[in-house]
Amino acid sequence: MVKKTTNEELARMIKVGFDDVTGRMATKADLQNVKADLENKIDTAKLELENKINRLENGQSEIKGALIPKLDFEDLSARVKYTETKLGIVSGK
Length: 93
Prior knowledge:
Structural class: mainly alpha
Low-confidence stretches: none
Strand content: under 5%
Helix content: over 70%
Radius of gyration: 38 Å
Order of helices and strands: HHH
Number of strands: 0
Largest sheet: none
């Protein structure tokens, strides 16, 4: 025999279901805390990336400063070749 469910029992079951869902839902304060945590993590990651970029740029500048520019190298090579020719020195190249 099938038991009939009354409106009151059905309402009680629905209320229990809603209470369960409501109890597991995040509150506005929970969401604000999550937002603040994410903002802090993003700010920290941004600062770390900016620092890394600055270090890379500084390193690149140091490397550029340590290398003889190509035009200067070509100019010096031409001068050495001219000097070797005038002095009669046989170049290795």
